[in-house]
Specification:
Number of strands: 4
Distance between the termini: 14 Å
Order of helices and strands: EHEEHEHHH
Oligomer: single chain
Number of domains: 2
Number of helices: 5
Shape: elongated
Strand content: 5-15%
């Protein structure tokens, strides 16, 4: 089993995004947030609006009601403004070639139902995998771990002979 991992730790733009996201309910009455995840070049999140809303485009120009459109627009503007104020003007890091795995781990066993790394519908059980391989994943963040010929990978390969 080979585990390809795209590693990234949140950068300054990620911190700005996180801060702006968490501040959103403070700018609107009757707005709450639920689960969210910040990705490399976008965010997934659930916004809860506790009132009847209009869904017309640019309805904020015609009424005072809160719409998803003006909440998201305001959030995007705040993130962009703060990113530019902090000197982040080049977003070339978002290009597809950056999605190449930055670390590769060879694992000693496959993901199966027997080791509980796969469930009965053959979907990976991420929690079990990350818990079991926690030390291995942390090692992949180190300079030595990013080398495909690191000692952990070589040990696994030697067992396969």
């Amino acid at each position: 089993m080979v585990l390809f991992v795209k590693l990234f730790r949140i950068n300054e733009i990620g911190f700005v995004t996180n801060r702006c996201w968490l501040e959103t309910p403070h700018h609107y009455t009757n707005v709450g947030l639920d689960y969210y995840v910040i990705m490399l070049n976008h965010i997934h999140g659930i916004i809860i609006i506790n009132q009847i809303v209009e869904t017309r485009h640019a309805s904020f120009l015609r009424s005072k009601s809160i719409t998803l459109s003006n909440i998201v627009g305001s959030f995007k503007s705040a993130v962009s403004k703060q990113a530019h104020e902090n000197g982040f003007n080049n977003f070339s890091w978002q290009l597809p070639e950056r999605w190449i795995p930055s670390a590769i781990a060879f694992l000693g066993e496959g993901f199966t139902e027997q080791n509980k790394f796969m469930n009965s519908t053959l979907k990976m059980v991420r929690g079990k995998i990350t818990e079991f391989y926690q030390n291995r994943i942390e090692y992949l963040y180190t300079q030595k771990g990013k080398d495909i010929c690191n000692h952990q990978n070589l040990t696994i390969i030697s067992r396969l002979k």
